[in-house]
Write a structure and sequence with these properties.
Oligomer: single chain
CATH class: Alpha Beta
Strand order of the largest sheet: 3-4-5-6
CATH superfamily: Type I PLP-dependent aspartate aminotransferase-like (Major domain)
Bound molecules: pyridoxal-5'-phosphate
Strand content: 15-25%
CATH topology: Aspartate Aminotransferase, domain 2
CATH architecture: 3-Layer(aba) Sandwich
């Protein structure tokens, strides 16, 4: 929420089922009414609700994003701690046009102090690389900047 605020963006909460995840009906209503640019979801082993969205619902979410031509930011930070084997699919695995930005980190598997993460940004690669370059430069050049403590 702090990162969203710092970027002068607004967030809208979408009702979510504790077993199957984000309500696609509610999301579609919101998409019809607001100029939404991206969906941020933690669809696998969600914390605190505990759900993992079923594969077919993950694919439907992806198709919905496609039909409204928006991005999905998939926070997969808990995906590797699933009890299931093989681990549940990502939304990214349905992505054929690069609109899903899949990100994760070692914070929930190895150690939170590592502060090492990764992203597969699809078609947003250049933008993400630029933002990372700028935010890392800010931290080096302005050690007291608010970005100093961000995980960007
Ligand atoms: C759901 C979720 N996504 C992302 C992060 C960010 O991970 P990191 O600590 O590697 O910045 C956290 C951190 O706890 C988290 O809980």
């Amino acid at each position: 929420m702090q990162a969203i605020k710092a970027a002068n963006l607004k967030a809208m909460e979408i009702p979510t089922h504790p077993e199957t995840g984000i309500s696609l009906e509610a999301l579609e209503l919101a998409l019809d009414q607001w100029p939404i640019k991206a969906i941020f979801v933690t669809p696998t082993c969600n914390n605190p609700m505990g759900y993992t969205m079923p594969d077919d619902k993950k694919e439907q979410l992806y198709r919905l994003a496609q039909s409204y031509d928006i991005a999905i930011i998939e926070d997969d930070i808990y995906g590797d701690i699933s009890y299931q084997f093989p681990r549940p699919k990502t939304i990214k695995s349905f992505d054929t046009d690069g609109r899903v930005l899949l990100c994760s980190s070692f914070s929930k598997t190895i150690a939170p102090g590592m502060r090492v993460g990764w992203i597969a940004p699809g078609r947003y690669r250049d933008k993400v690389t630029h933002i990372k370059y700028v935010s890392s430069s800010m931290c080096r050049c302005f050690p007291n900047s608010p970005l100093q403590n961000s995980s960007a």
